[in-house]
Design a protein that fits this description.
The structure holds two protein chains of two kinds.
Chain A: H1 15-29, H2 37-49, H3 54-61, H4 87-98, H5 105-113, H6 118-140, H7 193-196, H8 202-215, H9 234-247
Helix pairs in contact in A: 1-6, 1-8, 2-4, 2-6, 4-6, 6-8
Chain B: E1 2-3, E2 6-7, H1 27-39, H2 42-56, H3 58-81, H4 87-90, H5 94-100
Antiparallel strand pairs in B: 1-2
Helix pairs in contact in B: 1-2, 1-3, 2-3
Classes of the chains: A mainly alpha, B mainly alpha.
Chain lengths: 252, 115
């Protein structure tokens, strides 16, 4: 059966949304840059487990994420097969979903000591956030989540961009002037930090941009008179964006 | 605040209803739907979705869900990687940041602009 066909749904879901979600599902199942296909699908599964994780709920409510000890809801605790991910990777996925605003440089450095290199962390974030945003679309419309794809075999590529800088954020990124050669499609003349954020693993930037381009409309965010080509105008879009960001306590 | 010759009430961003939707068509209904999605409150998602659909139509509901889903991702990219506000945006967003008191957010420290 084709993923994201929304056959029984009466809502007017655009074909380009279905197509972008389907493309991501195909990418999700394949070996990535630093994780295997099975690990990528397991990361996606954990992004779903995090939503119902009691430990995450208690940690989110604690003054410090380090005040609470416990075990994440995963695998057998949820009646699922054991995850192929390490405890550190599972914790990272759950944090990105449920407590992202308290992730720090020292946390990322600690992950590195647990075998989650910066490259692996960036790919993990890319898989989590893209899968999560697709799931959130379904949840917002009251629709069941799409079954995760079957993982494909093969080895990760291990590709690392040759031009990297450690100037902002917790991990190295392609510098603003570094979108050349294999990375030339990542951005144009302007390189906002959010585009650079996952550029240590360029394919993760490409994945989220494909989905973002159908969920949202880029362009002049303050030109409220511009035609978005969608059923809601720019002011309405920015209101939704602003309220979601405020509840997530996102400064950026 | 005036943006593109249009007055909008930024209080909506902080979850306060505004007369006439704060200058945004169906502003209050969109605010409630967005809030419910971000707070992960299933009952509120259902009720606010129905209200929004009644006043703005099913297409608007789908588009609002897509934008909300997009920003559920964007905030997590920004905070998981600890990126600061782009230098080019620091001065022109100062007024909006002040009105919304964004410096109170934990992640403001990634930009050195926490209060």
């Amino acid at each position: 059966m084709t993923a994201f066909n929304y056959e029984s749904v009466t809502l007017p879901i655009r074909e380009d949304l279905k197509g972008a979600y389907r493309d991501f599902w195909n990418t999700l199942a394949k070996p990535g840059t630093w994780w295997s296909g099975a690990e990528r699908v397991a990361i996606a599964q954990e992004s779903r487990n995090a939503i119902i994780c009691d430990f995450c709920r208690r940690r989110k409510n604690a003054l410090s994420p380090y005040q609470v000890v416990g075990e994440h809801s995963t695998g057998s605790l949820l009646g699922l097969p054991a995850s192929c991910l390490s405890d550190a990777a599972i914790d990272a996925v759950h944090r990105v979903v449920t407590d992202q605003s308290r992730i720090t440089q020292s946390y990322i450095d600690g992950l590195d000591a647990e075998g989650i290199t910066n490259e692996k962390y960036v790919e993990l974030v890319g898989v989590v956030v893209t899968c999560f945003s697709i799931d959130e679309f379904n949840r917002a419309l009251g629709l069941p989540l799409e079954p995760l794809p079957l993982a494909q075999t093969g080895k990760p590529t291990g590709y690392r961009p040759p031009l990297l800088a450690r100037d902002v954020g917790f991990v190295p990124m392609v510098p603003p002037e570094g979108a050349v050669n294999k990375e030339s499609d990542l951005w144009g003349k302007v390189a906002p930090n959010v585009l650079r954020a996952l550029s240590l693993v360029p394919d993760e930037v490409r994945s989220w941009i494909k989905v973002a381009s159908v969920q949202y409309v880029m362009g002049d965010l303050l030109n409220f008179a511009a035609d978005t080509g969608r059923a809601i105008d720019r002011a309405q879009m920015e209101l939704v964006a602003g309220r979601v960001s405020a509840i997530n306590e996102c400064f950026y | 605040m005036k943006i593109s010759d249009r007055e909008v009430d930024l209080a909506l961003i902080n979850g306060m209803e505004s007369a006439d939707g704060g200058g945004v068509s169906f502003g209050n209904e969109l605010m409630h739907f967005s809030e419910a999605i971000a707070k992960r409150d299933e009952e509120s998602i259902t009720s606010s979705r129905e209200v929004l659909s009644e006043v703005a139509g099913a297409e608007a509901v789908v588009e609002a869900a897509a934008v909300a889903a997009n920003f559920q991702r964007m905030v997590r990219i920004a905070d998981s990687i600890g990126i600061p506000l782009d230098q080019s945006n620091v001065s022109f967003t100062a007024d909006i940041r002040g009105q919304l008191d964004l410096g109170r957010f934990h992640s403001a420290k990634n930009s050195g602009l926490d209060t």
